Amino acid sequence: MTSSSASAKDKPAENAKGADGAKEEASPKIDEKNSSTVIHPHAAAASVPDFVPLVKAVKPAVVSVSATIKDPGQEEGDGPSIQMGPPQGGMVPFGFPFPFMMPGMPMQQQPHSVEAKGSGFLISADGYVVTNFHVVSGATKVSITLDNGRSYPAKIIGKDSKTDVALLKIKPDAALPYLELGESEELNPGQWIVAVGDPYGLGGTVTAGIVSAMGRDLHSGAYNDFIQLDAPINRGNSGGPLLTLNGKVAGMNAMILSPNGGGSIGIGFAIPSDTVSSVVKQLRKTGHVVRGYLGVAGQDLTPALAEAMGVKSKSPTLPAEGALVASVTTSSPAEKAGIKSGDVIVSVDGKAVKNAHDLAVKISSLPPKTKASISVIRENKNLDLSVVTGDLGADGKGADEGNANSGKIGLPGLSSLNPHIRQEIGVDENVQGVAVMEVAPNSVAFRAGIRPGDVLLAVNNHPVTTPKAVSSFISQSLAGKKPILFQILRDGQHLYMAINGDAQADEELPSDDGQG
Fold first, then answer.
1. What is the CATH number of domain 394-507?
2. Active site annotation includes 119
3. Spatial separation of the C-alpha atoms in residues 419 and 31, rounded to whole Å
4. What pTM was computed for the model?
5. Which of 44, 154, 216, 511 could make an S-S bridge to 226, C-beta 3.0–4.6 Å?
6. Is 225 designated active site?
């Protein structure tokens, strides 16, 4: 697609005068041709693209997503309250409206269900739609409205809370226009981008801006690095596409930084299209996501550590890149490959590793049983090692047997607190418990207020350290139809939550099997 542009030909004014009208003294001459430090802003002429052809081409493939969400606190009065609206300040995922959990607040009377509004985009002519996980999380019914106003019920094909990606499917009467996922690695700061979505439920809206930064770590999980952008995006833009000027999807809009809990201040974040593409392929094929596992605890390189480890920066103005291996898990793929504590991992399959978070992103994006080349620096020497990735679900999460009973109440994903999980959810080494990695939407556990990232410290006043122990105590309560009491650690706060003993497995989300 071709867009017209206008070049800026303005040059610095000659013989500039000062405020008093006197001619300013000439600056010392610099040998610009032979200088490597002189920056020439006018060398790259500014251009203002014509966005009209692009918008006309892509807008029909952008949709509005409506999700009916049952109030988690409606039936279980001992769960945390729901505040309709964002917390004061901080990162805001912008489905509209979206319930934010506010533990410790007094219970407020809420409607039986709320409707979340978000955006999405078609990726196939037969009706596959991509949106954010948080837009449809806990939904009992989802519908898609096309740009032409037609609405369809949607089926949730799969969703991944760790990357905030969900895949939906509608059954259209005819082939639909769709967008192609591009390669986000080709994006650069300063590049023009266009965001399309449905902010505040107003209908299709377009905003433009530039890429502010790449690879932002927002500490929202080990599997995402974000594109930062300055295009104005607001609540309801969640799940909408971030497009390059060639009409390809560079990312999916996900959240904004909003100090006062309001709208956009020009700091937005999108999930890279490379991440979206990888997740969607798995969701479309199996309905769930598996991730590669290495088995190391990594840390970032400080200048002092980099010097001590013999890692040099590519530029005197940039920090050294790499992930320092703090520890290696016994019998892990890393140990089998010969990776040792004190190694600095500098690349995976030839792609540079910037820091510990970047290493986690790169490894998790590889399917289990993938043979990968790992380059390390050890004692000032470069080594190339070959590793076969493990399965993060089986190897990295300590997925013990015996989760069937916890699954009955909506806790199918529990994990022992191994070093990898502690790093992922930010739990200190002195904490003993079981990590909640997944909660089935609208299950009894979800309605009680249990969320991914929580740590179960005790069940029925019995301390727990394995998923099998949690499952055993749940089984005892279900058999006797007695309440199940959980002691939970969340963001450093201790909470108690309870579930009725007559909970049934069939109370989980119905929309996953079709229309809800």
1. 2.30.42.10
2. no
3. 55
4. 0.61
5. 216
6. no
What pLDDT does 296 receive? 87
Active site residue 300: no
Among 71, 147, 160, 164, which one carries the catalytic annotation? 164
Distances (CA, A) of 119 to 134, 138, 209: 11, 17, 19
User: 138, 438 in Cβ contact below 8 A?
Assistant: no
Tokens standing for 144? 């898609």
pLDDT for the residue numbered 457: 95
Q: From CA 311, how far away is CA 262, in angstroms rounded?
A: 43
Sequence-ordered list of residues with C-beta below 8 angstroms from that of 60, at least 6 positions apart, any chain: 146, 147, 148, 176, 177
For tokens 């020009």, name the residue: 266
Distances (CA, A) of 70 to 61, 92, 107, 414, 446: 29, 21, 16, 24, 10
Q: Max CA-CA distance within the chain?
A: 93
Catalytic residue among 64, 81, 119, 134: 134
- What are 119's strand-pairing partners? 64
Task: Given CATH 3.40.50.300, say whether it is the number of domain 295-311+319-388.
Answer: no
Per-residue pLDDT reduced to its tens digit, 365-418: 888 899 999 999 998 888 999 999 988 765 444 333 345 556 678 787 788 887
Q: Which CATH number fits domain 57-289: 2.60.40.420, 2.40.10.120, 1.10.10.10, 2.30.110.10?
A: 2.40.10.120
Compute CA distances 397 → 22, 198, 394, 422, 447, whole Å. 72, 37, 6, 10, 24
Q: Of 119, 137, 143, 238, which one is the catalytic site residue?
A: 238
